[in-house]
Amino acid sequence: MSIEFLLTTLVICATPGTGVLFTLAAGLSRGTRASVIAAFGCTLGTVPHMLAAITGLAAVLNASAVAFQTLKYLGVLYLLYMAWNTFRDKGALAVPEAATGQAPSARKVITSAILLNILNPKLTIFFFAFLPQFVPSGSPNGLVRMLELSGIFMLATFLVFAVYGACAAAVRNHVITRPVVVTWMRRVFGASFIALAGRLAVQNQ
């Protein structure tokens, strides 16, 4: 494993996107445990893309405009759905009221996180273009090497996202005790999901 791979992986993982946004929201709304669960779900969401890249499905996705556009717009719709739930104070990003203690289950949070990453065709193409660069051409253990690098990428994703979530959880008490801050937090996260949906919608292969 090269230092170039580690540095590139860390930069990619640390760059804010849907997964980071989702994990930050979980940490702010429900604390460290929820953010770790969200980070775990986002990490699991990379598995289908990794498998697609290893098996060559990414090539099909990259070559087929219809397949790419279909998956892309499903992702756009899901991001808009997440924004709608955020604005309505429901779903995985809701801040539970102290009196009720209601919060979405770990399964629901993980499912939402996985869907966020699955419905992102760029992630599949990223795996297809990124990982092979660090596997020597003609290597007899190319598949094993791809799996090793994918595992490292997934571990880095989980750790970086968990750190983001823990930082958000550290200031949680300063947020949830102030209704105005909570309201604006929901608006910011909802608007951010809409912005991410718009960015995905205009992206080409």
Summarize the structure in short.
The chain is mainly α. The protein has helices at residues 3-14, 18-30, 32-44, 47-55, 57-63, 65-87, 106-118, 121-130, 142-170, 172-176, 179-202. It has one domain.
Give structural attributes.
single chain; 205 residues; mainly alpha; 77% helix; globular
Question: Could you describe the 3D structure shown?
Answer:
This protein starts with a helix and ends with a helix. It has eleven helices and no strands. Helix 2 packs antiparallel against helix 3 (32-44). It has 205 residues and is mainly α. The model is unreliable at 95-101 (pLDDT under 50). It has one domain (17-202).
Describe the biggest sheet?
A: none
Helix/strand structural class: mainly alpha
Supply the number of structural domains: 1
Total number of helices: 11
SSE blueprint:
Blueprint: H1 3-14, H2 18-30, H3 32-44, H4 47-55, H5 57-63, H6 65-87, H7 106-118, H8 121-130, H9 142-170, H10 172-176, H11 179-202
